[in-house]
Amino acid sequence: MNNISIPITILDFSDLDINLDTLQKKVSKFYDQYEDDLYLLHKNKVDYLEQFINIKDNEVYLNYDYDFSKLNINEDTFKIINFMKPTRRRLISEYIVEIINDNIFINRQENRGFTQKFAYISNNEFDYRKYTRKFK
What we know:
This protein is of the alpha+beta class. The protein folds into 2 domains: 35-90, no CATH class; 92-136, no CATH class. It has 4 helices and 4 strands. Strands 1-2 form a two-stranded antiparallel sheet. Strands 3-4 form a two-stranded antiparallel ribbon.
């Protein structure tokens, strides 16, 4: 197996003398920053539409602000996709954690977008994990 570089580092907090409760309380202040996963919402809309029409234009997949009225779909189907709501919220973030004199400092880094280029995709269907996504 090849060595795979991934952006996730697994730490054992007890080996680093970090109190997990304290760390969780400090990180929890960011929970209100989670945002709707508009990529997943868009994919759900496209998956629903594919039951009725054959989508050949990549822009429909790649542009999650795509104007579905451009497609030849009936009014009821158009209403259904417009009523669809996000089903997941995400906060993809990176932090630098420093311990100075037993004080924990957590600094969130600017989101640069991410790609899951090593994600296992079992077929050739469109999958956003192949493309760079950006959340807050």
